[in-house]
Structure formats: structure tokens, C-alpha cells
Amino acid sequence: MTSTTEGRVYNVGGQDWDEVIAAADDLRDEGSDERLIVNMGPQHPSTHGVLRLVLTLDGETVTEIRPVIGYLHTGIEKNMEFRTWTQGVTFCTRMDYLSPLFNETAYCLAVEKLLGITDQVPVRASVLRVLMMELNRISSHLMAVGTFGMELGATTVFLYGLREREKVLDLFELISGLRMNHAYIRPGGVAQDLPPGAIEKLRDFLAIMPGQLDELRKLLDVNPIYLRRTRDVAYLDLAGCMSLGITGPILRSAGLPWDLRKSQPYCGYETYDFDICTQDGADVYARYLVRMDEIDQSLRIIEQCTDRLAAKRPVHDPVMIGNAKIGWPAQLAVGPDGMGNSADHIAHIMSQSMEALIHHFKLVTEGFRVPAGQVYASVESPRGELGCHAVSDGGTRPHRVHFRDPSFTNLQSVSAMCEGGLVADVIAAVASIDPVMGGVDR
Fold this sequence. Notes:
By secondary structure, the chain is an alpha+beta fold. About 50% of the residues lie in helices and about 10% in strands.
């Protein structure tokens, strides 16, 4: 940094890499064995995005590993400070892009806590939230297992995983209109109800998916090559997980049945019948088994959601809070042209009620005000505890929104998993962590 007449000038370069080289030279000068510094990434097919790993190798043994992040920084949290509370959903959904619906839910639960309307969210909206989150858990785990297989050389696993994931994305498109970055879950409820034919599509999905998952398991569960590459590899026991703040499948693979859906229920999860999946291997293979078992449990939950959504509905069964000063977009329904608001709602706000028109205008342009305060809300995402710390100063925009993304927290375990192991096992270790760099960098 230098000071000039124009002010402070910052020069940014690759100083960190220079420091690594200098430290290696110092070790060599002290008479230590020769070390090899390998820069793995940030553009590498097996780093799950733009993750950079700086490896210090002694032959093929990893003596030190340093994860370097920040290459996918989007400024999402800062951008949310300049948008209304509802518009914030369209930003946070883009963080962990493999599980966008969990980002939306954590954020909306925090906003609803600040508003004091948690108990006013319609039951049907909560069921739809659970349905979409569990579908999202399946799609995320299928991507994790599929890319893991490809990174170890089993390309068929990748094809099978992506093939089944497409079925989930088709359901997302049918229900929300988009395959990803949905902005479907809004403060006060969800954007819209199930479209015609959705229940039948969900039933078809539940009928075919177990058999497809069995095909995927047959390729890996007892594959001797896969077992040699994953068993006793990247070991991280329960004590290590607890000290590093690790959550999700990594923690449950070490034997602790910690799942926020059971320990701190939200969205009515306490009313669903499902099990917490655990293993005691604490290695790469155990993390794979936990994810596959969790897909089975998600199918159980989806079936229960489908039954509830298919049951006979009361006359007034909304999917958005009844408070017209908060619920946005109000009474959203597909019109006769297949898009946009329903003709009845347009007629109501344009010609029948001046108050409704004013509320609609203020909601869209200004947004609603949230009482001053701060809250923390968390959900169990496919990678662990995803939390949202929201701070309001009483205005129509967040004062601060910060997310505890599990990919960021879990990524610090890579050193504990890999140091002392072989360089080839780094690939399996990172794949078992399943980090998503959009959530790490935000």
C-alpha cells in the first residue's frame, strides 16, 4: 500500500505464492529433505469449482495442504443490503447453487422471525417448503456422488447420477418454473401453489427413483476398486469434527446423529417420519453411504408431503401469509395466457380496491418494513448447518445479512484429512467434503 495525492493506492498480487516458495527455500537451507510445492487449482476438474489447494509434497505424501478461496466472490451478502427484504431471496438463492432452496428457506425463516410471523405461515406453504428442500437434497447428493465417481475414474457413475438428477430438476421446473435459482420460497410462504399435474408427476418420481438408486449402488457399494480408494481414506473422527465445527454428512459419518430437522425442527419437520442416517467409519466411504441413505430418507419425506398436498383441501388454504402488507406477490396465480397474475387479481387491484392497488404498488417498489433487531435461523442443508444471521434497522432493506455456509466451515477440515496421506487421496477427500464454492465465497 502506498499514499499519493489521490489517496491510498493498493497493489494486489500473488504475494501468498511468493511466501510459500520463500518458506520452502528456508526449509531447504536448513538442511531438510527436498519438498515439492504443487499448485492444484483454482481451475482443476476435481476441485469442485475454483478452489485452489497449495500442496507441499514429500514424494507422494502430503506434508502440508493450504486451501485458498475467494476466486468466486460475488458480493451477494453486500448486494442484499441494497435490495428489499423480498428481493434478497433472488440473491441468496445463488450462493450454494446446488442447493438454492435451502438458502432461500434459511433467509426467509430469519426474516419471518424478525417480523414475528413464524406461526402465521400457512401450513400448506410449509409442506411445499419441505417438499422442495427434500427434492433439492436428493439432487445435491446425486451431483456429489456422480462427480465423485467421475473424479475417481468411474464415468458411468457420473452419467447415472446426472440422469437421475434431471428427474428432480424437471419437477423443479414444473413447480417453480426454473431448474435452479428459483426464488420460490418467499417471506410469508411460497410464490405459488402446485400446478395441475404436479401430484401425478411426484407419484411417478417416487415410483421409479428407488430402482434407479439401486443401479447406482450396485456400481459402488461393494466395488473392490472403489472400496480401496475410499475406506480408511481422509479419516476424521468425531473429536476432529467437533473441534472444527463440522456438520452434515461428514459429522454423521463419524457416528453422531446430529440433524437440525430432528434437534431443532423447522417448517414442521417434527411431524414427519424419517430417520437420521449415521455411519461409524469416519472416512470417505462412510460419507458416501450417509449421502445415499439420506436420499432414501428424503424419498420417505417426499411421499408424506405428496400425501398431504393431495389430501382434500379446506376452502381457504393459501400458500402465502394473509397479511396483504407482507405477502408478496399477493395472490399470485397463472393467468389464462399461461403466465403472469390471474385476471381476477389484476381486476381487483386495478378497478375494485384502491387500498389493494396501493399495497401492491408499495410492496413492489418499496417493500415492507421489518422491526429493528437481529436473529439467527438455520436449516439442515445437504452439506450441514446453513444459518442466516439477519440484522434489521427498521427499514425496508436489510442492514446486514450474513450466512454460515457449511461448505466454508467444512472446507477447513481438508488439512486434517489429507496431511500425512497420499496426493492421490486429496481428490477423494475433497469430493467427500462436497464443497460448493458459490457458498464458500458468497
